[in-house]
Amino acid sequence: MRLHVPVFQMAAALLLMASCAAPSARHSTGRDEWGHRPGPKGFRTVILDAGHGGHDPGAVSRHTGQAEKDLTLDMAKRIRSELGTDFRTILMRSDDSFIDLDDRVMRANRDGDAILVSIHFNSGPSHIRGPETYYWRVDSHGLAVRMQRAMTHASPAESGNRGLVRRRLRLTRNPQIPCVLIECGYLSHPAESRLCASPDYRHKLASSIAGVIRTQAASGDAGTGPLPRPIYAPPSRPTDKPE
Ligand SMILES: [Zn+2]
Q: Exposure check for the chain: N or C terminus, fewer CB within 10 A?
């Protein structure tokens, strides 16, 4: 019998089963409340969540005047077109409308065999630049590692940013599918905000992100390092203190 599951994935799954008091399904597709399992492979649906929208502009660059909500929507559409017909791609919003975070989570939970990528641009002290990736679920770690690697590779410079971060946010903890939140760059950094204003650069980023999604679907977590420890923490609420 040929084994279709790479040995390391089986080892990771066994390790997870041994270390969790209540192991969840061994399959890495389908809905799962905790996500204490290896990352997804072979998924067909990609939900692209353009952050902010409508009355919520997100960050606004004082260097270019661009609003985060417009850039995130542009990125979502670019990633969709890069993915072509190989995946069923769903845009959380396809126009300048506002969707509450909890409604975004509910929408994401409609699809089982899917991943969610929430797209943002950052703001902070003016010397900080470079992409960041946030995840919380164990099954989102590989995807997050790949996203951060690919965006860092596409980015010409970095300074003082947080890189890859495990953080319990409403869009990293609450969806019942693998999910990551990416910050494509700092709109508060003069040079990076001009870079993000360039359609060529956004094309390059979108193409890297689409490449990550393809690789994750084809290879699962292969080459993304050991899985993080499971954390039993409640869903994220708007009233939570920042972690
Ligand atoms: Zn944002």
A: N
